[in-house]
């Protein structure tokens, strides 16, 4: 009989603790789970003193294991090539000019798109008689970035066109 009283006491403590835990987590999303506890009951035969376990389900509150991670904030200014000159900017479109090598510019933008963990990426580079036209596209995190790098063989500067959709 003493063991039954101690067991009931522990069950009451567990129930109270679960209510305190639920109240402490009220500002967070809560996922319900059940815990099974075996409670010994007196045997049906008085001669047999071994108690028989009886399962009881006690609801508890457990915080979820996954949380939403916000995607990084991306704006058009984060795509300004270092050392370039902004010629035009309107909303989510921008035109830059740089005296750097077009391949170095292309590589910088490739790394930029890769570092943003874009799921879909397309890199097309074209060089015809010194006329360079490179197009890079990255899509993911709910947006699409298009970058065009263009240099004429008679020009000393490279044009960079960027748009974010």
Overview of this protein structure:
The chain is α+β, with helices and mostly antiparallel strands. The chain has two domains: 2-62, no CATH class; 76-164. It has helices at residues 2-24, 102-115; strands spanning 31-41, 52-62, 85-90, 93-98, 120-128, 131-140, 143-151, 158-164. The strands form two sheets. A six-stranded antiparallel beta sheet has the order 3-4-8-7-6-5, with helices on one face. Strand 3 (85-90) and strand 4 form a beta hairpin. The protein starts with a helix and ends with a strand.
Main attributes of the structure:
22% helix, 165 residues, alpha+beta, 42% strand, rod-shaped, 2 helices
Give a quick rundown of the structure.
This protein is α+β, with helices and mostly antiparallel strands and 165 residues long. It has 2 domains: 2-62, no CATH class; 76-164.
Give the overall average pLDDT: 78
The radius of gyration computed from the alpha-carbon positions, rounded to a whole number of angstroms, is 33 Å
User: Which parts are unreliable, with pLDDT below 50 for 5 consecutive residues or more?
Assistant: 25-34, 65-71
First and last CA, distance: 73 Å
Principal-axes geometry comes out as: rod-shaped
Strands ordered across the widest β-sheet: 3-4-8-7-6-5
Strands, count? 8
Number of domain modules: 2
- β-strand amount: 35-45%
> Given the structure, what is the number of helices?
2
Give me the secondary-structure category: alpha+beta
Helix content: 10-25%
Assembly state (oligomeric): single chain
Strand count, sense and barrel status of the largest sheet are:
6 strands, antiparallel
Q: What is the H-and-E element order?
A: HEEEEHEEEE
């Amino acid at each position: 009989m003493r063991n039954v009283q101690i067991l009931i006491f522990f069950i009451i403590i567990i129930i109270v603790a679960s209510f305190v835990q639920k109240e402490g987590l009220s500002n967070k999303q809560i996922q319900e789970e059940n815990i099974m506890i075996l409670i010994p009951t007196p045997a049906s035969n008085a001669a047999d003193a071994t108690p028989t376990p009886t399962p009881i389900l006690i609801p508890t509150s457990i915080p979820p294991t996954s949380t939403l991670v916000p995607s990084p904030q991306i704006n058009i200014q984060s795509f300004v090539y270092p050392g370039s000159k902004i010629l035009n900017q309107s909303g989510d479109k921008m035109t830059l000019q740089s005296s750097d090598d077009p391949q170095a510019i292309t590589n910088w933008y490739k790394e930029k798109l890769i570092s943003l963990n874009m799921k879909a990426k397309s890199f097309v580079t074209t060089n015809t008689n010194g006329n360079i036209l490179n197009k890079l596209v990255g899509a993911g995190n709910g947006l699409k970035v298009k970058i065009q790098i263009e240099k004429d063989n008679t020009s000393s500067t490279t044009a960079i066109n960027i748009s974010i959709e």
